[in-house]
Amino acid sequence: MQTCTNLELNNVKITSEFWNRYRELIVKEVLPYQWSVMNDEANIHIADDPQKNGTTKNSHAIANLKIVASKIKGHHSGFPFQDTDVYKWLEAVAYSLRYHPNDDLKQIADKLIDLIAEAQEYDGYLSTYFQIEAPERKFKRLKQSHELYTMGHYIEAAVAYYQVTGNEKALNIARKMADCIDNNFGLEKGKIPGYDGHPEIELALSRLYELTHEKKYLNLAYYFLKQRGQDPKFFDHQIEQDGFDHDLIEGMRNFPLSYYQAAEPIVDQETAEGHAVRVVYLCTGIAYVARLTGDQDLLTVCKRFWNNIVKKRMYVTGNIGSTTTGESFTYDYDLPNDTMYGETCASVGMTFFAKQMLQIEPEGEYGDILEKELFNGSLSGISLDGKHFFYVNPLEADPTASKGNPGKSHILTRRADWFGCACCPSNVARLIASVDQYIYTVHGSTILSHQFISNEANFDNNISIIQSNNFPWDGNISYKIKNPGENKFKFGIRIPSWSQCNYKLQVNKKDVNLPVKSGFVYIFVESSQMQIDLSLDMCIQFIRANNRVKNDLGKVAVQRGPIVYCAEEMDNSAPLWLYRIKEQAQARYHYNDHLLNGIGTIKVDAEVLNEDSKDDLLYTTVSNKPYDWHESKLSLIPYYAWGNRDDGQMSVWLNKEY
Q1: What pLDDT was estimated at residue 500?
Q2: What range(s) does the Non-reducing end beta-L-arabinofuranosidase-like GH127 catalytic domain occupy (predicted)?
Q3: Looking at the domain covering 15-438, what would its CATH class be?
Q4: Distance, first Cα to last Cα, the chain
Q5: Does the structure show a pLDDT above 60 at 119?
Q6: Could you state, in order of their start, the residue ranges of all structural domains in the chain?
Q7: What are the residue ranges of helices labelled H in 186-295?
Q8: Of 4, 302, 345, 423, which residue is the catalytic one?
Q9: How many CA atoms lie within 13 Å of 526's alpha carbon, on the beta-carbon side?
């Protein structure tokens, strides 16, 4: 018998009915649909984008690459970062081929890589906007250009595609890109002493280093992190030289440096400021490099940003970004529900950040937030048919308000076909396709099970773990561990924060009482077989916000297990704000096989007011017309499933009688 010192996870096969439906949806509907959109073959309505980011009904993302590769003639269409729609799609394809081999899809992806190779310049540069429209401006307006962001997304896709298919051409393109960036950026004479306005390249280079073990890529990622904010005038100097009125993206010039996380060095930044997606991509890169280098200053930054976001700036669904202005964070406890942003990409980015933090240290809170994002914040971004998407994820929505109030026009109450700025559809696709990578984390001789997604996993030394459950609808989790070599290792199971007061654990059918350490219970495995059964508390919980959050005072959110619920007009007569949950309300759970592809529903005791007449006075005394509450019920569905039926109001936070 030996103690395992450096276990590795080799393979995970998802068996979860809940997640396999989504993963098959990715293969059968999402990827073909997105491919047709990017090839301008789908009948979509980009012009419906409330942000007015699109002016035509087409994506042109593939056409841009073909123009650069001299296959067709034309001008660049879309944003400077339009290429990233293609690259994130390719990454999602890579993950899907691992669990659902598809020769036709692989041929499409291989030909796409051939096209990308033809579009890449000899020195490794590839960003179609600049190659077509402004070759003289390469790397000269980094505040807006997204060049490194764009190439970073390709590098991520290439790493994934090579790992699944072994395609050397895909990886060589990524190497050439990274080498091009390395040749152009740094503090050496003749190089650019700057960084991209949109963090992403840092995490991409870290992934490339993990695959290739070429230290220069990690060093380059480290440079970008350390250099950010060192020279607050860097962007201004570039703009002055490039031409003040020569913007690449209208309106971006006037955002403060904090929007780009560049107002000061990252080690000095105390709070999460600016564009939410930029923040969490940056945090993921910081966590990556901190883990790979052991830099304690960077780790301190990670924890500081994590605590600020999770404890003061995150919605109950895991969404982040409080304002449509800059898609940004605002200030602590400012969490409006009907004007918020909560971009899908930001929730996807939080899963990346949480995963990296779990790889640094076994803290259950990281797993809690990862779970919250997977089942709520991120999943809300895609419809049940896989062909409609939310860019913005509000916690309160009203079609009348979205149409009538310009300050709420960004709040869609039906998912859109596509967006002019289409970062979210392919981002949520690559997350769902790779969800098998978010279940376990290995620390030396310890295997952590932090997500309850049914699977069959294989580790080194012929160790295998079968996790069985009907999560998120049922809290009974079963593990069967096979350890034929009778190796010694620890198995840690996350006890979710929503169940830590009440759970039951059995090992080989015997009750055990183990201490919870930082959110995990640990079981020592040394026999050839072991069965572990965990029963989590799936009672319905009424959640209140910290009373510093003025928007939620006197309200509650309803949660069962990891799922946050909401009320929709389809199940409750509008307006929803006339309801309140009773003081001693009873809540009843029911699983409905036939509703929204199968969901758990909740009915809760409530009271409702009759809506005042349009002829009534706008204001009157309470004594003249007191509120007259009537017995009622509120029907609730999971937040991720809202907006899949008829148009109507929705609310997560509900009035509560106290």
Answers
A1: 82
A2: 11-436
A3: mainly alpha
A4: 60
A5: yes
A6: 15-438, 440-536, 540-655
A7: 201-212, 215-227, 234-242, 276-293
A8: 423
A9: 5
Homologous superfamily in CATH for domain 440-536: Golgi alpha-mannosidase II (2.60.40.1180)
**CA 644, 646, 648, 654: dihedral to nearest 10 degrees?**
-50
Task: Give the mean pLDDT of 116-125.
Answer: 98
Task: Select from 3, 20, 6 the least CA-distant residue to 598.
Answer: 20
Is a pLDDT exceeding 70 seen at residue 5?
no
User: CB 545: neighbour CB atoms within 10 A?
Assistant: 18
251 confidence band (pLDDT: 50, 70, 90): confident
Residue 335 backbone phi and psi in degrees, to 5: -135, 65
Give the CA distances from residue 369 to residues 230, 352, 363, 565, in Å, rounded to whole numbers and listed in that order: 31, 11, 11, 17
Answer yes or no: 423 catalytic: yes
Helices (H), 313-441: 344-360, 364-372, 399-404, 423-433
Q: Of 408, 416, 404, 400, nearest to 574 (Cα)?
A: 400
Reported as a single tens digit per residue, the pLDDT across 389-422 is 999 999 999 999 999 999 999 999 999 999 989 9
Find the mean pLDDT for residues 107-135.
Answer: 98
Going by pLDDT thresholds of 50, 70 and 90, the confidence category of residue 602 is: very high
Which tokens in the block code for residue 250?
């209208």
User: Is it the case that residue 48 has pLDDT exceeding 90?
Assistant: no
Give yes or no on whether 15-438 and 440-536 have one common fold: no
